[in-house]
User: Which sequence fits this backbone?
C-alpha cells in the first residue's frame, strides 16, 4: 500500500494550487483521509480531513481558503488551496486510514513542498 502525493510547487501570494494524493495497492476500504503540513521549525499540524462519506473538517488557519475533497472510485484525496499566504509554506503530507492486508492501518504519503513567495 502506498500514498503518492503530488501538486506542490512555487506560487505567489494570493495564488492557488491543487494537491492530489492517490492511494494504491490491495485496498479494500478507506475511512478518513487527511492533509497535514509541516513548516520549517514547526510541528506537523492537521490542515483538513474528510470522512468516507465526504464530510470535511478544517483547521481555523485554512477555513474558507482550502477545500478538501475525495474521489472514492480513484482512492484519491485532493486539497484545493486558494488565497495562499506566505505562512502556508510547508511540506504537505497526505494521511489515510486504510483497510488492507486484513487490517485497518494508518498510512502517510511522502510529502509535497508548497512554497508561497513573491
Assistant:
Amino acid at each position: 500500500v502506498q500514498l503518492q502525493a503530488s501538486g506542490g510547487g512555487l506560487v505567489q501570494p494570493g495564488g492557488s494550487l491543487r494537491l492530489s494524493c492517490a492511494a494504491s495497492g490491495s485496498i479494500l476500504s478507506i475511512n478518513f483521509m487527511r492533509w497535514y503540513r509541516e513548516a520549517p521549525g514547526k510541528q506537523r499540524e492537521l490542515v483538513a480531513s474528510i470522512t468516507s462519506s465526504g464530510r470535511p473538517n478544517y483547521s481555523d488557519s485554512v477555513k474558507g481558503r482550502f477545500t478538501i475533497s475525495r474521489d472514492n472510485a480513484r482512492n484519491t484525496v485532493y486539497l484545493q488551496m486558494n488565497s495562499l499566504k506566505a505562512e502556508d509554506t510547508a511540506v504537505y503530507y497526505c494521511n489515510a486510514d486504510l483497510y488492507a492486508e486484513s487490517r485497518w492501518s494508518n498510512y502517510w504519503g511522502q510529502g509535497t513542498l508548497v512554497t508561497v513567495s513573491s
Q: What stands out?
A: The two ends are 37 Å apart (CA to CA). The mean pLDDT is 97. The first strand starts at residue 2 and ends at 6. The CA atoms of residues 16 and 68 lie 14 Å apart.
